[in-house]
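Structure tokens please, single chain.
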Amino acid sequence: FRRHQHLSCAFVSDISGSSINLPLLAVMSKPKFERQHIFDMVAMHALGLLLFTIASCGAFSPSYKIASARTRLLQPTLTISPPQFKLHIATRDQDASALSVDDDNHEPHSLLDRSPLQTIRLEVSASSGIQCESDLPRVLETVASVCEDYGIPLDVSSIKCDAGSPGSPSSSQSSSEMMLGVLGRVLLIRVHGLPSGESNLDENEVVAQLKIDMSERMDAMLMMHGNVGDGSDDSDHNEASLNSNQPILLAFQSDNTTTIQDAIEKEISDYGLRDGVEDVCSVEEDESSSACFVHPMRFEINCYPSSVIEIDGAMIDSVESPGQTHFDTSSILVFDKLLDKDLRKRLLNVVKGYPEDHSEEEDDHWNDIENGPDPSRWVRGGLTDVASDDVDDGGGGSCWGLADDAIMDICYNEHPAISEFESKLTNLFPNFVVSRLPEAVLGGCISPLTANAPTHGDTFDYHIDADPLQVPPSPWADIYGRYPNRSKGKPRFVSCLLYLNDEWDAEEWGGPTRFLDPPTQEVYDVMPKPGRCVIMDQDVSHTVVAPNEEAGRSRPRYSLVWKLILHPTEEGQDMDLACGRKGLWPDPLVVGSANEMPLF
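Here you go.
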């Protein structure tokens, strides 16, 4: 992964993709407005005490060197006073010796030899979305400190500073659909003096390591200094000062033809940040889609939810109107006709590791009602909702989850049933680009698809799946920044849960998904039902409730979960899940604090 995931007050996830709470900062059960304020406070105070680092878990990135080299941990520190950077600037006429390094105090990174660095020099050519007078000098000091460590000259004499973001009225950059929702805080850095034949920066080890080190130091600087004013009474200046929630993309280029927009679009493409799932069922005449085609009118009827729940209401900051707030609620949608019996059965077979046309009457069928989930496919402890000092103690917090190879199978192998359901999702949300959660958001430890199989006696705690306001330093954060979920024109984080059992007596067997309204502690249960689909915002607090004893001690309640991101297709788009069909949907059931919308 390109950068360590420093989680200041959010969550980490195990290999099964299930979120877990961190005991030191149990903020996930707090109201969303408190989570937002806690995150701002954490960014301002004692960074070293509150940073958690999780390993990259073999996440994929465009450059293997970046993925492998950035496994060094940034150690927490108790010192919170800002480091005193001294900016050294080399002009284009100076050679590599102009910024000599004191060997007694500085050493280049151990992975690199000095020889490749002797011909390289860097030039900061442009910036975007960074305040030119208040913020840019500190950003350049941070870049210069890394260059000084490596003995590399840095030229900032011809930088073009555009305080606006790409696509904004103050920006000279044009906009495109790929640019929708981006943050636009970018620093373009041109690399001079590369050896002949090594112009591909993605494959250059020296540049890869420089980007790693600069990005890490920039993250630390932004966290350390973000939201810290200069003590003046100039509110406009303080509001424009560095914001710890908003990172900066460091974009390296080998020539002068790359624009800010080019750099952003390359990052989005390289890391698959906006890669939509395929709609394989949209054309009736297409032979490959004939098996899953549903007449548009029939699909339209089936895609109406049976119930809509609004929960966790709070006043939050408005991204589209800085300085203003608005009332926000999280949404839960329940669909009972979206998934037909045949597709549900095929998906269940995929989860169990059988061919899609597998029949229970076949001799190799594992009796999971008597014996629990098949241990060749499932592992106890594969799904954990509560952080523990001893994750291998086999305690009640462990649940059956898919093994690592099974996770890889459902995520990356071809399964027509999974593709067919993803086609349904694209038609359910026609106004958005529907994408799986990319690895570049939370790392390779969190899979975009997962499955679980709770049984009687399992215990769980409340958690959230993710929150775009609290994503760790990552390529995703560099491009889209941090913002409240459901913000206009910004990607919306949602999860999709499918109940897959052939039979489930919810009244007797229980096993609901329970949603919590943190301000009032009210709960709402969605009961399992074969083929039922639940779509929920990822920042809503929820938990699994284990099946009752009447279900049998071993009978698993199977579910398949997608972690999704819905991307806007228009500037400033309303990210409403109804996509213009709310008038045909049932009236929402409002739970707890969602009833408390202010009258003003």
